[in-house]
Amino acid sequence: MLKTCRFNAFLVSALVWNLAHGMGGVLVPLYALHLGMSGVAIGSLVALPVILQVLFNLLGGAYADRLGAKNIMVGSSLVFMLGNGVYALSDGFAGLMIAQCLYVLARATFWPAAYALGSHLPGERNRNLGHLNSTTNAGMIGGTAAGGVLIGAFGFQICFLVSMVILLCAFLLGLLIPATPRIRNAASQPGIVSTYRNLARMPAMYFAVACGYLSVLPFALASSFYPILFVGEGFSTQATGWLLTLRAFGSILAGIGLAKTIRAPTGLAVPAWCSLAIAITIATAAMTDNMWIVSSSIFIFGIASGLASIYFQMFVSAVSASGDRGAAISLGGLGWQAANISTPLLMGFMADGIGIRNAFYVIAAMLLTLTILLPALHRWALGGRTVSESL
Known about the structure:
- The chain is globular, with a radius of gyration of 19 Å.
- The protein starts with a helix and ends in a 9-residue tail after the last helix.
- The chain is an all-alpha fold.
- It has helices at 2-34, 39-47, 50-67, 69-89, 93-119, 125-154, 156-175, 192-200, 204-222, 226-232, 237-258, 269-287, 291-319, 325-332, 334-354, 356-382.
């Protein structure tokens, strides 16, 4: 019973944190658009702070192993609260950039800590990580839908204040999670630089980076230019919010119903098929403004991105030692940062230059190229070996 309470405290805290995360995905690009910013400015706002996230992410993963993942999660809620406060008070690019830097610091510390906690839960790893991903995506659904509705009803400033209240609840819930043991003690742990140097010598980590890129690129699009695409096609902010929740619904289905089908944590089939599906659905969503086609595309997009995320976590857990789990997730998470930096910037420049629909087609073509390259990268990274999930 105690283990169940601990597990629930962890999941509920992650759920509430992601309510605010989902709201931010709609609020930030539409608020910037509301202030009259160009596509390049919006892309820069979303992408440039992620350069800092590379450093924050590596430090967050290493300190999750050293200070305890619970402490890192709780701290991320406070930083996220502060970011929303700055957004609520800002109406210029500089203020928004400061707020977005706080957003990325919160994300960079939350995810390595949450995934490290999830990978150490008792029971089947694929099932546990599937439940974690379903929970976080459920939060994204609520937050994304609420963001679209609240913008229309109350305006942007009220939405940012509501997000602050939600994050205060996440912080208080996080305090209920029992203290997690420090995987390494101060006397025996190597330095952070040494830890990452050893991990960087593992070819498998470079395949993990590619999988991290694949798993986060859908979110990078959904939280930057998908809302702008849908509004430009004539959908209201409320409809846009609901459309984007379909991505999270698809990811929930992946976490609850399909995660258990990932039996080979280092196999190639899952990332290859997910990459292909994401590429096709990105192109399809830009081809038409038909609600049914767009809805179906976003839902399948969510299923594929959810499976890609679970696979990434399982792959890193399989190829890394327990004491380096947070650091390994963060190193593989360099793919997250690559997606979060390059996608909004590239989309911003292309949206201004060739139009937003053509920009989506280019991103789809890039993912098709990645799909073609994955088998060769997989062979090099693992040398034909498979790694047991029990590692």
